[in-house]
Amino acid sequence: MFNSMDVSGNNNLSLAEIDLGILTYLGEDFHEMKPAVKMAYKAARDVDQGDPDDNDSFVEFSEFRILLVSLRRYFELYAAFDAMDKGDDNRLNIEEFKGSVSILTEWGVNVEDPDATFSQIDANGGGQVLFGEFAEWALRAGLDYDKTMDEGDAKAVAMAVDIEVEEKPEIYEEEEAKIEIKEVDFAQIAEELPVSNSTEDKKRRKEIFDGIDVSGNGHLSLAEIQGGLLSLLGADVARMTPAITMAYKMTKDTNGKNGDYVERAEMKTLMIALRRYIEIYVAFDTIDQDNDRRIDLDEFLIAIPVIKGWGVKLGFPTEEFDCMDSNDGEKVLFDEFCEWAIKQDLDVEEEFDDEN
């Protein structure tokens, strides 16, 4: 098995080779358990300290057995984590944890005080438990999701546990921001995109709709919305095509009439969506330092102090990035960032919050 996974023929396994091997031997269901694979890889590599010149970025043949034991254990833990994660967002909140107390008992872990236990697991106090935090706690607590997986060398499992505790994800401390937030006139945007229920704002939204509806057919296409924003807000905002497109997609068909257009009755929803996604785009564009419309891990790590300033708690940023990168492309696209930012309630400009 080791030889077939070692596609490079260098007598050690990279994470990519392990991923491919799991896909080949176990199929897509296990291959999709990326957090578990990464934890097992970290636990196994550099166990054999016999040769100080060995590269600890790879799993050696002498460490392969530990890798297999670790994979079994972390697959089991991930299955438990996934069963508790009712929101399917690769993290647990306090409600999900409390709702899982009874099944935790079935898995051999008695939780007498769910709030206190959750706080203990949530080491960075972010209000969300990622798989790495859960796995560390579950190993200490002796969680047993599936007793049929218990075969194996207990000593090898203990070795994996010890290494994992030593290599727990680094908690980043607050540092001085190294990047600057992109400047946008939020006051102008708020003025030109009215969202309240006041008579004045309702009248203004009607005027905007009529002005944008150049075809006169009583509904708005994406092209008409983009053209209208160019007139209302200028080129700086009009160039935020991903934000405008996302707002359009989230708005169209909310009243169930026409799936390809924004109707007059959906105009307030469009204004709210535009505000929110423009704000998120400013955050995305700020982090995206090389302006390639995608965020890599290095850009994300550099931006941590700024992201924290937007109200997001990041104790384990590398894992957070992995959760964000839903297609495992090692780059976060705007739609992936939007989904993450909304769940985190990211707030670039407090005075720009939506009005009721």
Mean pLDDT score: 82
CATH superfamily of the largest domain: EF-hand
Low-confidence stretches: 49-55, 151-172
Order of helices and strands: HEHHHEHHHHHHHHEHHHEHHHHH
CATH class of the largest domain: Mainly Alpha
Report on this model:
The protein is an all-alpha fold. The protein has 2 domains: 2-166, Orthogonal Bundle (Recoverin, domain 1), CATH 1.10.238; 186-352, Recoverin, domain 1. Helices cover 54% and strands 2% of the residues. It contains 20 helices and 4 strands. It has helices at 2-5, 15-26, 28-31, 34-44, 64-84, 94-98, 101-106, 114-121, 131-141, 154-166, 186-192, 199-212, 222-233, 235-238, 241-251, 267-287, 297-302, 304-309, 317-324, 334-343; strands spanning 12-13, 59-60, 219-220, 262-263. It has a two-stranded antiparallel sheet with strand order 1-2. Helix 4 packs across helix 10 (154-166), helix 5 packs across helix 10 and helix 16 crosses helix 20. The chain is elongated. The model is unreliable at 49-55 and 151-172 (pLDDT under 50).
Describe the structure in brief.
With 356 residues, this protein is mainly α. It is 54% helix and 2% strand.
